[in-house]
Amino acid sequence: MNITIIGAGKSGLSAAKLALKDGDKPFVTESGLNEKYQSTIDILSDAGIPHEFGNHSAKALSNCDLIITSPGVPPYSQIIMEAESRGIPIISELEYAASHVRNPIISITGTNGKTTTTALTAYLLSNAGKPAIAAGNIGTPLSACLQDLDPGTILVIEASSYQLDRIKDYKPKVGMILNITPDHLTYHGSFEAYERAKWKTSLNQDENDIVILNADNPSAAACAKISRANIQYISMNPVQRGAYARDNQLVFVTSEHNEEVLMPFNDVRLPGVHNRYNSMAAALAARAFEIRNENIRDGLMQFSGVEHRLEFVRIRNNVQFINDSKATNINAAWYALSSYQDPIIWIAGGRGDNNTYNELDSVTSKHVKTIIAIGEEQEAIFNHFCTSIRCLKAESLEEATQLASQEAIEGDIVLFSPACKSFDMFANFEHRGQVFKSAVQALL
Asked: Is the whole model's pTM more than 0.85, yes or no?
């Protein structure tokens, strides 16, 4: 087939290599300028894969049998709309890569928590002796994992709404929808379209598969109306099947009259109520692959989290510094702010996505003593909170870190949880988190 890959990021490059290995004819088209992609251009040239950078020319769609689109290419982009008008099939890199494997797949999505839950699920499986790989939106495209893949390896995939929006036959053995709250609405066009993209996690599942839904999140729970899978729930309240919290204990429910207490939530290493949901979901996925309770318990007690998500950086003068750069929306910041009982110096800001900060009023009034605002949302954050909480402004993340250190006293927590995207000042949230960690380590 003649396959056009739109986007030359990690997923696009991996898909092009896989297509070439299959004996197909890939063509990579990228609207970004050459200078940013020089190393990618070198790789494509060495592999003999035709490519273009700086625009999408007419040859990108000429004699094209299939399009593989990268996650960041919006559905309203000109090349996508032109391809649709011509009736050219369009799929995601996730769909393309998954069609090449027969390995069992655990597919994890949600507005928040999916990276932590993906890493935690893979850890629970691996720690219990089941080979597992974390892939997808967590950082390694699935198509980059297929070489020398053992057929017994379980693929634990973080799936974004962008990736799920373009699936056709993708069928995970276990699917999860941790939560759905407004996000990426510019891309999807509406919250309803965003919901539908997330629900595609279970689109092709049947009664032999499992989907794990958050009963406490109406949009996630509503996936049940389109799913044919065996449904299990996670909740802070009793459920008919799944896992829930009772008297600060994680409880499995296998049938109406059969409950098993796994462990106290206080023994789970990851802090915060949101990580209770994540832990319940990961534990149910592990049980689906016959991992014993004692192994699940050990894994939950040992797993310390992922980089840039409530990541402990340093204690200085008995003040904890926490990097939560992955909190790119209001909901993620809410979870972070509610995860600690000690007073918080909160560093926030970046590029907003129709942010409504009144959703954070209750949690900030309980936990936050000072807010330091940065980035494009600096004025919006400052103006919203300044009448009720001490607010400061900083022109850089380094300056904000210095100010936070000066504001903090013994027993406080300096929490960098931006509630915003990173693209006003940084390449991505990883870059932003590294800058914060460097600034923290540079404190005298």
From this structure: no
